[in-house]
Structure formats: structure tokens, C-alpha cells
UniProtKB/TrEMBL annotation:
<feature type="domain" description="Metallo-beta-lactamase">
    <location>
        <begin position="16"/>
        <end position="194"/>
    </location>
</feature>
<protein>
    <recommendedName>
        <fullName>Metallo-beta-lactamase domain-containing protein</fullName>
    </recommendedName>
</protein>
<dbReference type="InterPro" id="IPR058121">
    <property type="entry name" value="WalJ/YycJ"/>
</dbReference>
<dbReference type="InterPro" id="IPR052533">
    <property type="entry name" value="WalJ/YycJ-like"/>
</dbReference>
<dbReference type="InterPro" id="IPR036866">
    <property type="entry name" value="RibonucZ/Hydroxyglut_hydro"/>
</dbReference>
<dbReference type="Pfam" id="PF12706">
    <property type="entry name" value="Lactamase_B_2"/>
</dbReference>
<dbReference type="InterPro" id="IPR001279">
    <property type="entry name" value="Metallo-B-lactamas"/>
</dbReference>
Length: 267
């Protein structure tokens, strides 16, 4: 890894909490803060980084597994926090006061420049007030985060295609979900167009968007009760190999974890 690289670590990803760390020479950023402040501090330390060096926090939507530690971190570390207007309104009663000068509106479909990194937002289909995710551009490389969506539209596919790296949702195995103990209305919500991508849906969407630049794919937001890391990985890898995609050769598939950070990786 060099000073000029964009580096990332998926600190936690899953139904119990989500945090991703991104750094360049000039900036250190978090996307979501869905664990306690203490837990996020520990995960940062595990990759040799300090939360005190983080300058920005980007929020995707108001669900607890994405904002649990947001207020605490924003206040303790004086972070600039970015979210769209709908998300700000939805999280206001949940995260406590944040200084007005630290609250930044980042509307959907916009791009903001932060020195050596550009951040672009895009809307997704999820049962939240105004859910959006982000792609990060640095030195000709692009990293896309896309979880918490019931499907991937052609518009989104066109926006995120051929990125160098993805953190992509493979939330559930459909049969595990159908046969599991969740109430039927919750199962319907997860399976709907405003829910989450299954292993098969995630694999198909990935194959639609990945291109010759794509070298690293992180499989994320696995359900604690309706999926298994090995199953998600095997499903995606098998479907890709059936389409003659060179898994493990032209690109790598990485697993993520509910409570263990991935290795800090250059994009």
C-alpha cells in the first residue's frame, strides 16, 4: 500500500451493526456507525487506526444497525456528519444533539468533493425515510457501498458499474428465511422490493455491474439468523463461475463479519 492509495476496512457488516472505514492521504471517514462507540473504537484499534483521526461520518438511513453510535461519535470526536434531509429528520429523536455547524445535508444524487476524494450519493429501495448509499472516488479508483436495498434498479446499476471495489449486500438465504422463526410480516418485508437482497439477488446484481476494473468484492450485511458466511460466499462464487467469471483470479471475494474488521486494504 502507498500513501496515494484509497484504503478501506469493513469494520462490521450485518444485521446487528454496520460501519465502514475509508482513508486517503487527506481524509479519514466512516460510513454509518451502527455499533456502540466503544465497540467502534475497538474495531478501529484492531486495524491500527484511531477514531480521533476520523473527520467525517456519512449516514445512509435511520435504522438502528446503521446509526446506533452516530450521536456519541459525532459529539466525542467532533465529526462532520453528512445525511440527506429525510434521514436527518428521521434520526433526530434517536441520536441526541449534534452541533448545527457539524450537521451537513448531503442530498441524493449529488457529489461532494473533499480535497483528494469525491463522494457521490445515490438512492436505494428500502423501508426507510430517504435511504441512500455512496461511492467514493480517489486517484482514478472507485469504491461503492450498496446494502439495504430490495432490488438494484437499472439507474443504480448504470451509476455504480465497473467500480474497482464493492461492499455489496447478500443478506439472506431465501429458504433459511422462509423456514426460520421470523413472523410472516417481517419475512414479507425482507423479501419485498423495499427489503434486502438475497444471496442470489446480490450475485445477479453484482454480475450486472462488475467490470474489468473490479478487483475486490466484499460480501456484506448478512443476516445473523437467515444466512451463513460460508453459504453466502459459496452461492455467489458458484453463480459467478457458472457465468465463466474468474473468481479468485481476476477478482477476489471477501467475507465480512458482524464483529470483526476486515484487513485494511488498498483499492
Amino acid at each position: 500500500m502507498s500513501e496515494d492509495d484509497m484504503k478501506i476496512s469493513v469494520l462490521a457488516s450485518g444485521s446487528t451493526g454496520n460501519v465502514t472505514y475509508i482513508e486517503t492521504a487527506q481524509h479519514k471517514m466512516l460510513v454509518d456507525a451502527g455499533l456502540s462507540g466503544k465497540k467502534i473504537e475497538g474495531l478501529m484499534n484492531s486495524i491500527g487506526r484511531d477514531l480521533a483521526d476520523v473527520d467525517s461520518l456519512f449516514l445512509t438511513h435511520e435504522h438502528t444497525d446503521h446509526i446506533r453510535g452516530a450521536g456519541v461519535l459525532a459529539r466525542r470526536y467532533n465529526l462532520d456528519v453528512y445525511a440527506n434531509q429525510g434521514t436527518w429528520q428521521a434520526i433526530a429523536p434517536k441520536i441526541g444533539p449534534i452541533p448545527e455547524e457539524k450537521k451537513n445535508v448531503f442530498e441524493v444524487g449529488k457529489t461532494k468533493s473533499f480535497g483528494d476524494i469525491d463522494v457521490e450519493s445515490f438512492a436505494v429501495s428500502h423501508d426507510a425515510a430517504e435511504p441512500q448509499f455512496y461511492e467514493f472516488h480517489h486517484n482514478g479508483k472507485t469504491f461503492v457501498i450498496l446494502t439495504d436495498t430490495g432490488y438494484v434498479s437499472e439507474r443504480v446499476e448504470g451509476q455504480i458499474e465497473n467500480a474497482d471495489a464493492y461492499l455489496f449486500e447478500v443478506n439472506h438465504d431465501v429458504e433459511m428465511l422462509r423456514m426460520g422463526g421470523y413472523p410472516w410480516p417481517l419475512k414479507q418485508r425482507i423479501l419485498s422490493d423495499h427489503g434486502h437482497l438475497s444471496n442470489e439477488d446480490g450475485a445477479n446484481a453484482l454480475m450486472d455491474v462488475m467490470g474489468y476494473h473490479t478487483k475486490k468484492i466484499f460480501l456484506g450485511h448478512l443476516s445473523l439468523h437467515n444466512n451463513m458466511k460460508e453459504l453466502a460466499h459459496l452461492t455467489v462464487a458458484s453463480m459467478m463461475k457458472n457465468k465463466d467469471l474468474a473468481v479468485g483470479h481476476d477478482f477476489q471475494l471477501f467475507d465480512t463479519d458482524h464483529g470483526k474488521a476486515t484487513k485494511l486494504t488498498a483499492i
